[in-house]
Amino acid sequence: MKPLGWWLRHVHELLESSMARALDAESLTRRHWQVLNTIARGARTPEEVDSALAPFVATDGSMTAKVADLRARGWVAETGELTEAGREAHARVEERVEAFRTAVTTGISDDDYRTTIRTLERCAANLERH
Question: Is 12 helix (H, G, I), strand (E, B) or coil?
């Protein structure tokens, strides 16, 4: 049996590459999607986006460039809200992301999924104490 770290890394790599394929039709990266979705949920400034995506900012740096790219596409207004085109793009991409998430968890019961998440949370809490 392979150890937990091997599976975490393997699943992470598969999630990243599969998500990239799901977002490719819109020429987006996973971080673009996260920024777009964060703005759709109410973040209005690059600082609010960075705060909401703090774990990713810690490894990837500020999401300001992603916000700027979405503005250049006409998806984010100067006010920080999604434009009509941005709301339409968000809806299109959200549909793809939901289909992706469904495909990832096919054959996994809700109970098994919750158990997996609780187990990973416990592993993280154990590691954070060290």
Answer: helix
Q: What pTM value is reported for the model?
A: 0.83
Burial 38-77 (b: 16+ CB within 10 A, else e): bbbeebeebeebbebbeeebeeeeebeebbebbeebebbe
Q: How confident is the model at residue 59 (pLDDT cuts 50, 70, 90)?
A: confident
Dist. CA 22–CA 38, nearest whole Å: 18
Q: Answer for the pair 44, 2: CB distance below 8 angstroms, yes or no.
A: no
Residues listed for the chain:
130
CB neighbours of residue 1 within 10 Å:
5
List the one residue out of 115, 39, 108, 105 whose CA is nearest residue 78: 39
- Tell me the CA distances in angstroms from 22 to 29, 49, 96, one per residue in order: 9, 22, 6
